Structure formats: structure tokens, C-alpha cells
């Protein structure tokens, strides 16, 4: 595969405002920026953290597909939650999406840039040889 750099955008207004790409593909690697639970078409956010986590994975899946990767190519994930009390709520969602893949993972409790955001998920994928 060519080693050229390719930028992927979801069209989120945040990408231009904050000067970043949703994902950067470099060779066989895909680096996906932190994704929150927004539906970027409607600019709406689900209320509960589990629904936000599902929305994050929907965006991540679309971005990876556009970049030529599969969800199974994820080798690293970072979860950022705004409150440790949300861990039990989102754990089943994380397990459903990542349980078979089991990438190296980190979970951080921290504030996010908007109060309605409860979770942000960042992933790194390495294209499989198959």
C-alpha cells in the first residue's frame, strides 16, 4: 500500500473550527481522532452515555470503512468518560463492539469540551494483511 498521507473528514463543523481531521491514514495505519456521540448530520446528541457510545462506534465504523479499514483492524483505543459512575453504563456497549477484537485500551475520566458529551472514543487501526 502506498505510504501517502490521506485526510478523512465527516463534515463536522468542529473539524474546521479546531483544525483537525476525523482520521489520518498513513500507509497501513489509520489514526481516528476522538469521536463523541453526535449525529453529525442532525447535530444532535443522545442523552445517555450508552447511546452516545454506540453513536461513537457508528461514526468510527464509517470513518474506518471510508479509509479502507475494518473495525477488526483496531489495535488501540482510548475511552474518555466524564464521570466514573458511567463506566457500568457503557461497559456492555464497549464489550459488544470491542470484545472480540480486544485492542490495547485506556480509560480516562476527564471533562470534555461540551457538557452534553459523556464519552469520547479515539482509535488507532493497523490494516490487516488478509
From TrEMBL:
Lineage, uppermost ranks: Bacteria, Pseudomonadati, Pseudomonadota, Alphaproteobacteria, Hyphomonadales
Protein's name in the database: RidA family protein
Pfam families noted in UniProt: Ribonuc_L-PSP
Signal peptide (UniProt feature, chain positions): none
Gene3D superfamilies (alphabetical): RutC-like
Highest taxon listed in the record's lineage: Bacteria
InterPro entries recorded: RutC-like_sf (IPR035959), YjgF/YER057c/UK114 (IPR006175)
Amino acid at each position: 500500500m502506498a505510504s501517502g498521507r490521506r485526510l478523512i473528514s465527516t463534515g463536522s463543523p468542529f473539524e474546521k473550527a479546531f483544525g483537525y481531521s476525523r482520521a489520518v491514514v498513513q500507509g497501513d495505519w489509520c489514526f481516528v481522532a476522538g469521536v463523541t456521540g453526535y449525529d453529525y448530520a442532525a447535530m444532535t446528541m443522545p442523552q445517555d452515555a450508552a447511546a452516545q457510545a454506540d453513536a461513537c462506534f457508528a461514526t468510527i465504523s464509517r470513518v474506518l470503512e471510508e479509509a479502507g479499514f475494518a473495525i477488526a483492524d483496531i489495535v488501540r483505543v482510548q475511552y474518555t468518560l466524564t464521570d466514573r459512575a458511567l463506566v457500568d453504563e457503557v461497559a456492555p456497549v464497549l464489550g459488544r463492539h470491542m470484545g472480540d477484537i480486544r485492542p490495547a485500551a485506556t480509560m480516562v475520566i476527564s471533562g470534555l469540551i461540551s457538557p452534553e458529551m459523556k464519552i469520547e472514543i479515539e482509535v488507532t487501526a493497523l490494516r490487516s494483511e488478509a
